[in-house]
Amino acid sequence: MSASDRITFGGGGLDRAATLRGDSRAVAALAARPGARVLPLWRGRMLLSGDRLVALPFDHPALADAGPAEAAETVLLGRCAAGEGIWARPLPDWDGAPHEAAPGEEVAHPAIGGAAFAELRGRMAGLGAQDAELAAMGRAVLNWHAAHRFCARCGAPSHVAEAGWRRACPACGAQHFPRTDPVVIMLVTHGDAVLLGRAPGWPEAMHSVLAGFVEPGETAEAAVRREVAEEVGVTVGPVDYVASQPWPFPASLMLGFHARVSGPERPLLRPDPAEIAAAHWVPRQRLARIFAGEDDAIRAPLRGAIARHLMWNWLAGRLD
Fold it and tell me: Is the model's pLDDT at 129 over the cut of 60?
């Protein structure tokens, strides 16, 4: 599989140890083993050395400053091939931590040598399959905890249960579980051309395929048709599922589809300015130039993203 073909976060075969989550004694025993490790996340950034995630032992000095909230939100991600447990935990600011970090900046911790905290989005394509799965899990679940510390039913503070995979409300008894928002992302084609668009606020050369959230009570296929009609005023015919990608920014599941527009005439695009700043039918020959870096007006999507996977495989004739 080429670098342009691979979907990051596509799954690394991790043993998620889901059967242990409700057994507090088993989880505690796993955490007490010498090989137990914690992936620290600081402001949503992952600790990396080169293209590898860095995990720390539970007694590492960098984890000692974690307050009760951070320690309570330690989430069991699973077990590695050797059977040792691996967790994720938010790391608070330390003395000397920058108040703001630039998007591409790597931030070192004084107690951690040979590694730095970096944004996952910019480094995801270089991660191995299991590191990517761990990163997606850890970031998504910790983001969920940070946004759901109070019961959605009664407003009382909730607490972490089942090794980080549930929050329980002691006031009303409600149980809350991490959520994943389904999003359809679709390669729309008409004959030998593909539909690309640019969202408002994106850089001028940044284009991608269309995407949108699935609404309650809606099938994924219906969401594809609705979103394409809403965003560019085009009616699509056949809709076929291709692949999926967890997208931890903050917590979505991208459902990839190929949608075809029927008829001899290429439809006129009528972009909704609230959603689409520009939309184009891009012929196959031009898409090849885009992937070769020879088009000044449009650049290919981020490596590892399912949008790139859809475009590249259609270009290579492998999407069907």
Answer: yes
